[in-house]
Specification:
The complex is a heterodimer. Chain A has helices at 2-7, 50-58, 80-85, 103-110, 120-130, 132-136, 147-160, 177-193, 205-211, 234-241, and strands spanning 10-21, 24-35, 39-43, 65-70, 73-74, 88-91, 165-169, 197-201, 214-219, 222-228. By secondary structure, chain A is an alpha/beta fold. Chain A has one domain: 3-Layer(aba) Sandwich (Rossmann fold). Chain A has a six-stranded mixed β-sheet with strand order 6-7-8-3-9-10, with helices on both faces. Chain A has a four-stranded antiparallel β-sheet with strand order 2-1-4-5, covered by helices on one side. In chain A, a hairpin with a 2-residue loop joins strand 9 (214-219) and strand 10 (222-228). Chain B is globular. The longest helix of chain B is centred in the first third of the chain and has 28 residues, at 53-80. Chain B has one domain (2-208). Chain B has helices spanning 2-24, 31-47, 53-80, 85-108, 132-154, 156-166, 168-173, 178-203, 210-225, 230-250, 256-270; strands at residues 122-125, 128-131. The chains are: A alpha/beta, B mainly alpha.
């Protein structure tokens, strides 16, 4: 497995990225790397830049210095529209669903980018297989979904874009244990059945450790630890938090 | 009956405002003058270019659409990027409205103009006397609303506008170009507003100054219906149209605005978000 990883092409290459919120520096020379098809977890205390890092990759929040390359192409400074077209889907903690549209309409809009428009039907089918609950509720208005269902819809919508890289921000936060399991189960299925690369930000260390192949730890905007998931324990991770 | 007519005309006007507000969160104070412009372009094409009614209207609408695109790209888009955009756009559009009003005055003269009715004659049903033109207006508005609904719900363009209206961040996430959507929404709304101006001109009359009256009515409708909600605007428009008819019939036309005002205050007190408030496109 490790040999495969090393030989595997690099999908996402984040190098020494700085990012600010107003005058506050949130990312300090943050660097990380994902290989094609890998599932990587990003841990770290709240407010230390995890979401900002995802947003910078997605083109939603600017990186003021450093470089972000996806499949060899520099994407830092590119518009979010083009980044989605290149195959990167950002799934935010807030979900940002279209609250007055139905589940189906939300999913269809996920395929808005030019490359995905021709594949709506097949992507939709896959999303419904992955999340049967969404199929059941497909004509329901998005604001009436439960917390777990709206998370699933957010992930489904991201998949509709035909993404090859998913950036998932805290998918299990605020969910009941059963729902958490369902959500992680779906991500596990994506990992097993597709070549999609996944970068997942999580507080739920146990589940994420089982899912991920490698982990990064972000503290104060800086990557302080990188290890194979098999070689790190929850206790070790928690030590870095404090 | 006449309430239905005015209601439907007001609805068209209000929808133009709603699209702009819903998608861009912009109060278009130039709204009235845009409506008037639509009417004047049509009149110009009718009288000077001697085109038929339908081609004139069609061409006028196309011109309005492109003017909207240009206006947005040239002036509004840059303003939107400044931190005080809410304020500066209002002032800009207001100023533009006044400027255009005077330009029209210069170009066309102050006298009342009219765009001919679509049909002559009418019928009598019992005690009601109705003319074909008014019926055609209602039908036209009905068809228009159906078309707009189709546009919003079944085309990528329309869905993009709804998405931006409902969650701008979400729209970015699915790869929608916000700037382009704003521009298209503005252009669409300009054409819609121009259209409402043309319709209003066929029923009533048209001077360069009437834009403000139309615009106030439009704003009242939009706020009453719930800012940003198309359905709400339609309900409110009909409500105001029908009440206007009744009030004029029983109390006289001078009572219309005062009673509207009272209705407005009462409804907003009871339901501050407007009739269909909270909902967007």
């Amino acid at each position: 497995m490790s040999a495969n990883r090393a030989a595997s092409r690099i999908a996402l290459d984040v190098q020494e990225v700085d990012s600010l919120y107003g005058e506050l520096q949130v990312l300090r020379k943050a660097s990380l790397r994902l290989h094609e098809g890998e599932v990587v977890a990003l841990f770290g205390p709240n407010g230390h830049g995890k979401s900002t890092l995802l947003k910078a990759v997605a083109g939603i929040h600017p990186a003021v210095s450093g470089s972000i390359q996806y499949r060899g192409v520099e994407i830092s400074g590119t518009t979010s529209e083009k980044i989605v077209e290149m195959g990167i889907a950002y799934i935010p903690e807030d979900r940002n669903l279209f609250t007055e549209m139905t589940v189906l309409e939300n999913l269809r809009l996920g395929a808005f980018n030019r490359k995905a428009r021709g594949r709506v039907a097949e992507n939709l089918e896959y999303v419904f297989v992955l999340f049967p609950r969404l199929d059941e509720r497909k004509d329901q208005i998005a604001s009436t979904l439960s917390g777990g269902e709206s998370r699933m819809l957010a992930i489904g919508r991201g998949l509709m874009s035909g993404a090859s890289l998913l950036l998932i921000d805290e998918p299990s936060i605020g969910l009941s244990p059963i729902t958490k399991k369902a959500v992680f189960g779906a991500i596990e299925t994506i990992k097993q059945e597709t070549d999609i690369t996944v970068l997942i930000v999580e507080q739920e260390v146990d589940h994420a450790l089982k899912l991920a192949e490698r982990v990064y730890l972000l503290k104060k905007g800086r990557v302080v630890l990188e290890k194979e998931a098999a070689h790190i324990s929850k206790a070790e991770i928690e030590k870095v938090y404090f | 009956m006449s309430g239905l007519i005015s209601g439907s005309l007001y609805a068209t006007m209000a929808l133009g405002l709603t699209i702009i507000y819903g998608v861009i969160h912009l109060f278009n104070f130039g709204h009235g003058i845009v409506a008037v412009l639509g009417g004047y372009f049509t009149w110009l094409l009718l009288t000077n270019a001697h085109l038929g009614l339908i081609p004139s209207i069609f061409i006028a609408l196309v011109i309005m659409f492109f003017l909207g695109l240009i206006l947005f790209k040239a002036a509004i888009s840059p303003l939107l990027k400044t931190p005080t955009w809410e304020f500066s756009t209002i002032i800009f559009l207001l100023g533009l409205g006044i400027l255009l009003e005077n330009l029209i005055l210069q170009a066309f003269g102050p006298r009342v103009k009219q765009i001919p009715q679509f049909f002559e004659g009418g019928l009598k049903i019992g005690f009601l006397r109705v003319n074909w033109h008014e019926i055609s207006l209602i039908l036209i508005v009905f068809i228009f609303i159906v078309l707009l609904n189709y546009l919003l719900k079944k085309t990528w363009f329309g869905q993009a506008m709804r998405a931006v209206a409902q969650d701008m961040e979400g729209a970015k996430i699915v790869g929608i170009n916000i700037d382009r959507t704003f521009r298209q929404a503005f252009a669409l709304a300009t054409a819609v507003t121009g259209f409402s101006g043309i319709l209003l001109a066929t029923k009533y009359y048209m001077t360069p100054h009437i834009g403000w009256l139309w615009m106030f009515t439009g704003f009242v409708i939009v706020v009453l219906g719930g800012l940003g909600s198309a359905m709400g605007a339609i309900y409110a428009a009909f409500m105001l149209g029908i009440t206007e008819a009744f009030i004029t019939l029983y109390l006289g036309s001078l009572w219309v605005w005062p009673i509207w005002f009272i209705m407005f205050v009462v409804i907003l007190l009871l339901r501050p978000q407007g009739l269909a408030g909270g909902r967007t496109l």
